[in-house]
Amino acid sequence: MSKTTLIYATVFILAHVALVAPFVPWANMVPASLGALSMTSMALTLILAARWRIVDRLMGGPDKSYGAHRWLGFFAVTGALGHWATAETYGAGAVPVLAESGESVGWFAAMGLVVLTCAAMVRVIPYHVWKASHMLMGPIFLLAAYHTFFVASPLAVGLAPWTLMALVSAVGLLAWVQTLLRKREITRLVKVEKATPFVGGVDVTFRSDEPLPSFRPGQFATIAQNVARAETHPFTIAGGTEATRRFVIRAAGDWTDDFVSTVSEGDTFRVGRGVGRFLPQVNASRTEQLWVAGGVGITPFLAALERMEPDNNARVILIYCIRSRESSGAIADVERHAARLPQIDLFVLSDASGDRLTSKRMTEIMQSMAADGQVYLCGPEGLKSLVTTAWQTLGKTGKVHSERFDFRGAYGMTDLIYIGKPALEIARSLWVGEKELPHAASGP
Ligand SMILES: Cc1cc2nc3c(=O)[nH]c(=O)nc-3n(C[C@H](O)[C@H](O)[C@H](O)COP(=O)(O)OP(=O)(O)OC[C@H]3O[C@@H](n4cnc5c(N)ncnc54)[C@H](O)[C@@H]3O)c2cc1C
Questions:
Q1: Averaged pLDDT, 280-302
Q2: Atom 49, ligand 1: which residue's CA is nearest?
């Protein structure tokens, strides 16, 4: 969790305590604050999921909205569990006959929240199954709202905490209805014009018979089979004209495996409009930039290179980390653009030739950059933390922009090993230390 997020989180939690504390007895302050925290967090997650454009813009793009959505989901669950563990009934309730049902409904809401949040975190649950289950968060929110207003609680009708709960419940409900009614995204029918396979993926260009809505380099769009209620998947637009769209797609699961192994010229699909706020600067008045791409994370930069005209203005350093040339579909075009654009300094680092991006190398490259240069990152988490750490260690002030290729952020075995490894190391050293003691005691 970054320092800024930690500050926001602390202020968010304390604001609930400050709001509730003056209006409830001391003994109920903790459960009432946690309950309010859970309700507000749930309402905000529903608002972010409604994908209102103004909200996505304020958040800095859909992937940032999903990032905040996940954190708020975490607050909703911990708030609900903390409330459930510490709350006691108080008084008769706003409508005494409903007080008992208000209490039991609260239990179902908390359990539902825990189960659905766990489902979101477990990667083995396929995305489309998880997405369908996640729609049940709306009814869970309704149960929580019923519990909030009808359980026998110290929240007196009309006082500030009650009014806040009423407000967030109304807006949360509105957001959920918006998500339910969200018209299926307007998509355009396209035909596969070219499909060039590479190791582990395919470089595909679609053509449309009618003009496609314009896009900005860095934006992504959804692709779906041309059938009713088809599953949609987001992919960064790697280039295109008024009538074409190019994508570089890596086989990463059931839908992409099928796409990569079966797509061929003439197939028809539906493509959505470009969205997203990850926008590398391509115009002549740009600031100095560092672009770092890992694997298919090259796609936003490929679209940017295609839009650039040769000039001698601010330099753009592009670091492209690949496993091998065979598994990086776009390498030839990236090198062609770099040759045509004097402003681009291209570094291609291939694992296959043992050329890895280290923090030492990263620091060397960054040292010559202006402090207010901008960094754009698209790739795996490990690469992002290497680059961000190097940039901050050098005391650079320029903003680090990053794009996530995984909105869900679920945890798989690799994540659990990555997270658990430090704990395992400590346990092992403690265990080994233990063993040595007796030996130490007994001498070698
Ligand atoms: C903004 C953005 C841009 C992307 N750009 C590219 C790109 O240019 N090239 C590329 O190869 N991949 C890109 N991806 C990743 C791509 O969307 C997933 O690899 C693909 O959706 C996997 O679906 P699957 O059914 O094959 O795999 P699954 O096994 O279902 O999922 C594999 C991973 O992809 C995520 N995922 C699955 N379905 C979706 C979905 N509908 N929406 C969001 N995430 C999903 C899951 O959380 C999971 O972590 C991008 C993702 C995002 C969010």
A1: 95
A2: 406
